[in-house]
Each structure stands twice: as structure tokens, then as C-alpha cells.
Amino acid sequence: MKQTLLSLSKLSKQFDDRKVLDSLDLEILDGEFITLLGPSGCGKTTLLRMMAGFEHPDEGSITLGSQDLTHTPPEARPLNTVFQNYALFPHMSVFDNVAYGLKMEKRPKPEIKQRVEEALAMVQLEDFAKRKPHQLSGGQQQRVAIARAVVKRPKMLLLDEPLSALDYKLRRTMQVELKRLQRELGITFVFVTHDQEEALSMSDRIVVLKDGLIQQLGTPREVYERPANLFTARFVGETNFFPGRVDALNDDGTIIVDVFGLKRRFRKPDFSVVKGQPLHVLLRPEDIRVLAPGDDDGVAGKVVERNYKGSTLDSVIHLTDGTEVLASEFFDEDDPTFDYRLGEPVRVSWVDGWEWLLPEEPAVVAEEETVDG
Amino acid sequence: MSRWLPRTYLTLVYLLLYVPIAVLVVFSFNDSRTGYEWGGLSFRWYEALFNNRAMVQAMWNSLWLALSAATVSTLIGALTALALHRYRFRGKQVLNGMLFIVMMSPEIVLAISLLGLFLMVGLQLGYVSLLLAHVTFCLPFVVITVMARLSGFDERLPEAARDLGASDFTMTRTVLIPVIMPALLAGWLLGFTLSLDDVVVSTFVSGPSYEILPLRIYSMVRVGLKPEVNALGTLLLVFSLVMLMLSQWILLRSKR
User: Fold this and answer.
1) Optimal mutation site among B149, B154, B163, interface A, most CBs of chain A within 10 A
2) Are B70 and B138 in contact (CB under 8 A)?
3) How close does chain A come to B235, measured CA to CA in Å?
4) Of B148, B128, B141, nearest in space to B70 by CA
5) pLDDT, tens only, A25-55
6) Measured between CA atoms, how close is A187 to chain B, in angstroms?
7) What per-residue confidence (pLDDT) applies to A306?
8) Do the Cβ atoms of B164 and A80 come within 8 Å?
9) What is the Cα–Cα distance from A48 to A82, expressed in whole angstroms?
10) What pLDDT score was predicted for residue A237?
């Protein structure tokens, strides 16, 4: 079991009238890659800036090991930051940018030279030491920012949406590179992003934030497959929400749920259920099975949109009652008829056991829509 | 017709702007005593100028005054700009607006009020009163130049420096000042030029102990145009051109 490196306890912060963080508790483990994920304004950047020391909590404390950091200024914290737009010093060469932190520690010159060269080699920029930041591409500037932050061998690296300014392809490359660096250095990474795909592919653990509150804390798989609430389900990946009603409770730990008139047998969820209770049945697009109109399973609908994605075929299906269903199917090489025409009638089903059940949250649903937009 | 009309117009405008200057430069090398007829090439007026001890003294006084006024106003102005940029405080808008009032108000008003103030506190008119007056009217220009640079300044730079272990003071020395240096230099040059050719305010607040160049020229011209003035004007022109090129070069270098 990994040890706790940084613990945040009961952190609260208010800007004017807006509560940005609301008594937030979080333990960050030594050596992990943890991502703070949420829409803009959820408090993720404020939280990161608090760890770095640029913001101070109104209440609560930040402890690193046994050291209380709550009121320590940024320069005295053994953590370093990679900023969103890199914040490279424009008047210094790449070498001097990377050397800055070591000069502040008053390290001897030969040591600085050696460590800067090592750091630049690590990000494959040995040949660019004499350049100025404006002579580098976005991706190269990004690497300099990383080298500058890790050259001090911090206990923890804080990354504030570091890839958001890069184009898609470069972003994928940098994601892989960051993971490699984190493995090689063994430093704890705290990564802030609003990109759920990035969060899923890079993290050991994800903290889903909204309105200054932790919605869910778990591995990418837990967050994706077993979302704690409707917000997480909606924010992380695409989801179909089907309205269900509990029809019967069985003794063997399963329940019968009425979905679109179909009586399906599901595992009993963690929350308590009573007969007749409405609930949400969550199915990811890849859990949906699209069947021929003559099939006796599933619900009737018709295809209103189809998107060829290379490895998958994504379609939007309208059920007869108007519900919109997203389906994402892998190509089946053995099935030559695998394709739909627009307007074609189909039936929609899924594999029981792949569903995830959530209770109704009537008060929050309306607000959810505005957050997504 | 449609082609030569704008050209003639432009030519006229430029002639109007540059002929007087050209005449001044040409006549500064004129051997003739009167300023209206050509008497051959000569450097006698430059010689006369440098032999005029009062004139040379006034030149040094002016240079020293402009140098000190520009430096003091850059120091105060840079700190003011930083405070206005960095902190949120009560009366910030008022302070900001007051700078513009100093800049926009007629010079004569500033001159009279400064004179009144100096007489009231019993300050002897001379170098100190001139310096205070010049710093006053240079200040808003420096503040505005530095603020313009700061508004494009990446707020994350100071944070990055602090994050890497620099104290607030070290960050200011190693990151903030180098980055805003072009604006400081530009502000300084602006202050220097404003101070060097000021007549109105200086007339009011200077005393017999400290004569400066613009006032000296003004009093010379009043009793009749001497060709020496042409020579002086040419020297000042060359000096301003050098300063102008210097400031452009600094701006270009910082824009890279």
C-alpha cells in the first residue's frame, strides 16, 4: 500500500460570493498519477494553486508528510508546477530557464550545468539549450517547462492543463511522454484537466470535481464503469440514461427492472431499493446492441444518424417513445450486412450485467444541463 | 489629374514640415552675419556657440536636469505602475484618473500651481524646483508606458519564479524588471525629451541660479535672431534623431 504524501484537509475557499472549494478532503499518495477532472469553474485549478502556494485556503490545512504547508510561501514548498501556457522566462535561454530553480538553491556551477543537461536530455532538447523560448515550437516549449520543473527533483509535480494548448496529435505524444517521465522519475504527478479522455488514459486515480466538491474519487475504470452519480456519468464519456422502475426484488441479490416495458434482471445496486421505485439505467454506447427489426429482443426504433469512425460505427437511434440512444459498435468482419441506412427500423438491446444503476436525483437534473453546456 | 493631386498635396505637406528644419540646418553653416543671405560654408557659429560660456553652461544644466528628471520619474513611475497593476486597493481608479489629469491639463495651469506651491513652502527657485516640476509632468507618461507593457505581461511568470524558489524580491530583480526593461527605457527616453525641451513650466519655476537651455534660447531670440541659434538647433536636432533611433531600436529588439 502506498503512503500518503500530501493531505488536504477541510479546504474551503470563497471568492467574493462564490464558494470555490467546500470543505474538501483529499489524500494524495506517494508516486501516483492523480488527475483533478471537472468542468471549468469546478475548483480544480484553485485546488492546484493552493497546493503550489499561490492561493491560501480560508479554512483547512495542507500537510506534506509531517510538515504543515498551509501558510508556507510557494518558494519554500518542495513542489513544482508546469503552467498552462508554460510561463517560460522570455528573456532567458532554454538553459537559463531550466537552471533558474537550481540557481535559486545556490548550487555550484558545475552541478547546475550537469543537472540542466540531464534534464534537457530527458526531454530530448539537448541541442536547444542556447535558444530563446520564442524560437521553439509549442511542444518544445512544453518540454522546457517540464524540464524546468523537474530539475529541482520535487516531491511532487503539479501540472495545470499542460497539454491544452497543443494540437491533437502532439497532445497524444505528450501524454505518452508524461506517463514515461512519471514512471522514470517516480515523482507524484497531480494533473489538472477538463478532458475526460486524457484523464482516463493517463491517471492512476481520478478526482471528479464539481462546484468545489469531490463527486467521485477512483481509478479510471471505477469512474467510467461505476459512476457515483449522474454528473460523473454524464461528464466522463457518453452515456445513455434509460428510465427504469423496480418491478420486483429477488432473494438471489437481483432485481427485476421495467425498462421500456422490458422486464430485465439486474444485480441489486449498492443503494437501497423498494418496489415501484424509479431509477436510472446507465448504458455506455458500446454496451448497446443494435438488432434487426425482426428480432424478438429489445425495443423498436429507427436510425437517425450514422457516423463511420474507422474502427467503430457510431449511430444515433430514436426509440418509438422519442428517447435518443447512442450506440457504438465494432465492425464484425464476418457480417457483411453490418451497416444501416438512415431511417432504417432496428431494435435496441444490451447485454444484462453491463448496466449501471443510479437512483433518481430530481433536484440536480436541471442544473446538470447547464454545466454540460 | 486624379493622380497628381494627392501627390502635390503630400509634397506640400512635407515641404511645410521639413523646409524650415532644412533652412535651419543649412543656415547654421552660413558664413554671413545676417540670417537671410548665403555667405559661404563656415563653422563659425558652432565655434561661437562653444565659446559662449553661458550657453555651454545652460546646455550642461539642461542635460543634467533632463537626466535626473527622467531617472527620478522612471523610478517613481515604474513603482506606481506596478502598484496600479498588481494590487487592488481603495481609490485605485481615482489615482489612475489623476495621472491623466496631470497629463491633459494645460501646461500653464501646472506651471502657475507649481510656482504657487513653491512660493508657499518657501522653496528657493533653482535646480530643485525645476527637478520637482519636471518629474511632475514626466510621471504620467512613464506610468502609462510601463502600464501598457505590464498589461501584456504574463501573470504566470512571477508565479513560475516563486515556484522555482525565488523570493518576491529576487523574482522582481531577475524576472519582472528584465521583462519590463524596454518599457522602462522607453519611459525614461520620453521623460528625458519632455524635460529637455520644456519652456512653459520651466519659465515659471526656474531661478537665476540655474539657467537651462530652452530659456536661454528663448531670451536670445527675443533680442534678435542670432545665427548661433541655428547651430544650436541643428545640434539639438541631431541629438533628438539619435535618441529617436535609439528608442526605436530598443522597441524593435523587445518585440522579437
Assistant:
1) B163
2) yes
3) 36
4) B141
5) 999 999 999 999 999 888 899 999 999 999 9
6) 16
7) 85
8) yes
9) 11
10) 86
Of B154, B167, B178, the CB nearest to A75: B167
d(CA A140, CA A144): 6
Task: List Cβ neighbours of A337 (8 Å cut-off, separation of 6 or more).
Answer: none
Whole-model pTM: value is: 0.79
- First-last CA distance in chain A: 40
Q: What is the mean pLDDT of residues B89-102?
A: 86
Residue of B nearest to A105 (CA): B165
Angstrom CA distances, A239 to A206, A236, A324, B146, stand at 18, 8, 11, 52
Q: Do B154 and A84 touch (CB under 8 A)?
A: no
Report the distance separating Cα A3 and Cα A64, nearest Å: 11
- Name the residue among A53, A74, A91 with its Cβ closest to that of B179: A91
The total number of residues shown for chain A amounts to: 373
Side-chain-facing half-sphere of B19: CA atoms under 13 Å:
6
Is there a contact between B168 and B118 (Cβ–Cβ < 8 Å)?
no
Which residue type is seen at A37?
L
DSSP notation for A268-290: PPSS---TT-EEEEEE-GGGEEE
Q: Which of A83, A84, A92, A157 to mutate to test the interface with B (most CBs of B within 10 A)?
A: A83
Taking CA atoms, what residue in B is nearest to A145? B160
Chain B residues in contact with A46 (beta carbon < 8 A): none
Whole-number Å distance between alpha carbons of A187 and A182: 6
| Amino acid identity at B126 | G
- Residue-wise pLDDT tens for chain A (373 aa)? 578 999 999 999 988 888 889 889 999 999 999 999 999 888 899 999 999 999 999 999 999 988 999 999 999 999 999 998 899 999 999 999 999 999 999 999 999 999 999 999 988 899 999 999 999 998 899 999 999 999 999 989 999 998 888 888 888 888 998 999 899 888 999 999 998 889 999 999 999 999 889 999 999 999 999 999 999 999 998 899 999 999 888 888 889 999 888 888 888 888 888 888 899 999 999 899 888 888 888 888 988 888 888 778 888 999 988 888 999 888 766 665 666 778 888 899 888 888 899 988 765 444 444 444 3
ipTM > 0.85, yes or no: no
A15 touches chain B (CB under 8 A): no
Sequence-ordered list of residues with C-beta below 8 angstroms from that of B171, at least 6 positions apart, any chain: B158, B161, B162
Cα–Cα nearest to A342, from A303, A300, A290, A293: A303
How far apart CA A26 and CA A61 sit, in angstroms, is 11
B83 CB neighbour count, 10 Å cutoff: 13
Do B156 and A85 lie within an 8 Å CB cutoff?
Answer: yes
> How far is Cα of residue A183 from the mean position of the Cα atoms in its chain?
19
